[in-house]
Amino acid sequence: MSLLSDGSVIPSFLSIAQGEGKSGREYSLSDTSLRVGEIVAAHNPNTSKSTSKKKMEYDVKVMYGNGEGAISTIVYRNVQLANLFGGVADFFNWTPRIENLDLKTGIGLGSRVLILCINGNSRNAYIIGGVPHPDDKKQQKKEDGHNLEFEFNGLNAKVNKDGDLIVTHKSATNADGSIKDSSKSGAFFSFTKDGKINLSAKANIYNETPDKFEIKTTNGVKINPGGIMSQAFVRGTIYRQQEDIMHQTIKPLLLTITTLLTAASTQIIATGGLVAAAGVTVTAAGGTLSTAGGLHKIPVVGPKIAAPIVQATGASLNATGTTLTSAGTTLTSAGSTLASLAPLFTQIQIAIQLFDSLSSEYLSKKHEFAESPLG
Question: Is the pTM of the predicted complex or chain greater than 0.85?
Fold first, then answer.
């Protein structure tokens, strides 16, 4: 424990050092050291504490040493981020993390930054980069080779030693790197050394339907594997709607055709039965006539005996004629039934022609792909 000349007590863990005799103004204009600090506050451009009124500004807490062992904490206020490109048209903006200090370690999870003051003026400090955070557990490995990797708020991009580019969407993260909502993570795309482009959209487990892979353009999508752009994309929804209209038109016609064909086949089968029965009757009549013919001799008693037989044969033939007439009527009806099918087939043809005539509507006028010259 030490005492100052005025009797003030200096704790044993602090030391007394002689200053350089510079005034505060002189110190503020000779701040040329590269310093490490942690961001403790942010000022939006539309707030009263903003000085630029255009850019985000930050307060950075720095552990300040004078080279003689004395250390103090200084807050650099209204510090802006250096712009990587420094242009009007070309710029690079990002926002650092701001987190409270860990009471156990005395280190916060906020961004650890490097600051420099232009011309040594502490009121004109800029954040020019960052330093590895002591709580960062990621380990670099020799086998990773020549590579690049960065991650910002859950979006990870990596270029590995083979030149593959892999971009993964993890979802927004907390300051410690943990994912806020893992159900929305997993989508990625990559360009790999074998010339392939891979894309994957993660399904949302809280929805019944998976997330869609969506491409929005104003002039269409073209896929060209090295051929001539000649194949249009099918507009599946319109195609399916028109196809359904055609099916709904054809379906009842086909059912009617089935019913009519069944009726016509039944009539033809019945006609066949009638014709067969008539054939049996005609055969029997022929036999009877042959018998009667044998009886037409002298004496006259023969014709008398044959007369009833001939009459009976005539009756049989008359009955056969009636049967054949009925068969003819049935066949005529069957023919009419079959003839009625023609308009139905015509309607089916018209429905198919209408569907085909709208084919241009099924093809996209914007989106197309090339047919590979290799087929």
Answer: no
